[in-house]
Structures are given as C-alpha cells and as structure tokens.
Amino acid sequence: MRARGFRGTIQVVGAEEHLPYDRPPLSKKVLSGTWGEEQIRLRGQRELDALRAGFLLGRSAVRLDVQARTVALDDGPSLDYGRLVLATGLRPRTLPGTDSLYGVWALRSLEDCAGLRAELLTAHDVVVVGAGVLGCEIAATARQMGLRVSMIDRSPVPMLRQTGPDIGRLLSSLHAEQGVRILMGSGTTGLTDEAGRVTGVTVKGGETIPADVVVVTIGSVPATDWLTGSGLPLDNGIVCDERGRAGVDLHAVGDVARWSHGVAGDGLRLENRTNAVQQARSVAADITGAEDGYHQVPYFWTDQYDIRMQVFGWVWLSCREL
Ligand SMILES: Cc1cc2nc3c(=O)[nH]c(=O)nc-3n(C[C@H](O)[C@H](O)[C@H](O)COP(=O)(O)OP(=O)(O)OC[C@H]3O[C@@H](n4cnc5c(N)ncnc54)[C@H](O)[C@@H]3O)c2cc1C
C-alpha cells in the first residue's frame, strides 16, 4: 500500500505476539536449529517504521460488523475501517481426543516450532502423521537431526495431492533411502499414552509404532470461525472475486482466501507463500485504484534433505488415484 503511494492510516492486527515473520523455515532451518528467530523476520525494524503502520500484536479480531464497518477485538475498543483486508491464514487440523496429550504437536507458529524442537532434541522416535508437504519436510528435518522417523498416511504416496502419483513414488523412495519408515495407505486408529504423555501411534492392522513425539500434519482449515454470522461468503475459506473482493471495501488474501482465477476458475484456495505475497500485491493495487487482476501460475517450493522441489500449476487427480 505504501509503495503504491497510499497515505492513509494502516493498522495491522495480529493474534501472535511477534512482528511479521516467515513461516516456511519453521519446518526446515528453524526446526533444525540452523537459523534463529532473528533470521526469519520479514522486515527489519527500520523498514517497519518506514511503513508508518500501527501493529496491534497479541490481539485477536473476534467479530466483524460490515454495516457499522467495525472489527471487535478480544480486548479494548473496536476498530473502525474504511477498507478491510482479511489475512487470517489457517488453523491446523488435530487428531480427535489428542489435544491434551503431551508430546503431540502441530506446526504453524514460532511457538509450535520452539516447543517441537525442544522435544526433538531429547527424543528418539518420532512419528509424523500425514505425508503432505509439511509432513515430508518435518520428517526430513527430524531424520537429519538423527531421529528414528516414521511417516504415516492414508494416501498411497507422499504429497499425492500436490505432485501426483509419479513424483509421489519418487518421494517415497527418497524418504525410505534416507531411513524414514514409510507407512503409506495406512491410517491411524489411535495414539497410546502413559500418564498423559504419548508413547505410540497405532495403525490399521494393529501395529503400534513407538513415539516420544508425534507431529500431526493432516491439513488445516481456514481461520474464519470469528466471521460466522458476519454475512461474508464463507465456503472452505472466504470467497472472493478475481481481485480478492469479498464484500464492500473488503478483501481477503492468502491461505484463508478463495479467489476466482482466470484459468482455474472460481474458488481457488492456495496454501503457499508465493500466493500470499502475489495476492497481497493485487489487493494493494485494487485498493489504490490500479488494474492488476490475479492470474499468476500457482507456485510453491519445498526443501527436503538436500533437494529443492519447485511445483508450478495444479495437479488434477482422478478418483482412482485418490
Ligand atoms: C511450517 C510451515 C512451512 C511452510 N513451508 C512452505 C514452503 O516451503 N513453501 C511455501 O510456498 N509455503 C510454505 N508454507 C505456507 C506459507 O507459510 C503460507 O502459505 C503463508 O504463511 C500464508 O500467509 P497468510 O498471511 O495467508 O497466513 P499466515 O502466515 O498463517 O498468517 C495469518 C496470521 O493471522 C493471525 N490470525 C488468525 N486469526 C486471527 C484473528 N481472528 N485475529 C487476529 N489475527 C489472527 C494468525 O495468528 C497469523 O499470524 C509453510 C507453512 C508452514 C506453517
């Protein structure tokens, strides 16, 4: 917005206590300990100051009133807006009944990463439930930290939805060669525990795989709970047009947003870093009156062991492959 000459007030509200940071390294360089917190800050203090934006951190938006044009926060007075951009991202899915079990982790935030890393440092056996991009990255990092790692998924191959069956088979071999025990096509039936701490993961067929730490990476849901009843179109995310407009003077971007895409059609929701940045740029253009429809080719990267994989476009799977 500032780069496009916007001179009005900008207020950023964020539930996390931290200034903006980059999430992709959390499953790679930060989890392994190669990078610290300071290396993943998205902007230095000088650049942030130059934005002349207010940051209300550690505060959650709890209600949106589109008629009154206000956003209520969990603490303090509501905020008025002339334009509102919603960028609330995702909430990780959890395995039912495991929320209060010690040793069971999801990875979304810096706190998750610090907690998980601390436990990996003293663990021997790690089970990753879910072999999507995040699961594969965590399995690779834990393996490189010298842990015994098992990865379980109902799918026949890792990253099936993101890369299709052929690359998925190559990924299976890659992880197996690196010493990860791959249990594909096998769902979990439950976790075992002792005194509230996880001890293993039971898979279909009855085997229980020992685990000091279990990382659950079975997907995420758009963080839209607080928008229920706001009148915004919600359907697996905030439904937007091709400029990210979801209502009057209201846009949504990033993981939480389902945009109309010139090629892919309506309702495309992508969960990757490049998409979040490109959509943010498009929204800034739209608000400042420039023509800049969103039509980029979807792109994401993933780092596993010493391999960087870059994926462009979409993978369409037939029912047989799923
Ligand atoms: C561990 C990990 C590794 C990843 N690796 C890669 C990768 O290698 N390549 C890639 O392309 N992508 C990767 N991604 C995905 C990428 O990080 C996301 O696509 C990107 O962060 C999306 O940005 P966003 O702004 O939409 O959402 P987020 O980055 O999730 O930001 C949303 C923010 O909104 C806050 N929030 C939620 N609800 C509220 C509320 N009601 N009030 C106030 N604040 C709220 C959240 O706390 C959060 O800080 C990774 C993600 C994770 C978690």
UniProtKB/TrEMBL annotation:
Keywords: FAD, Flavoprotein, Oxidoreductase. The keyword Flavoprotein applies. Its cofactor is FAD. It holds the Pfam family Pyr_redox_2. Residues 3-280 form the FAD/NAD(P)-binding domain. Gene3D superfamilies: 3.30.390.30, FAD/NAD(P)-binding domain (3.50.50.60). It comes from the Bacteria. PANTHER family: APOPTOSIS-INDUCING FACTOR 1 (PTHR43557), RIESKE DOMAIN-CONTAINING PROTEIN-RELATED (PTHR43557:SF2). This is NAD(P)/FAD-dependent oxidoreductase.
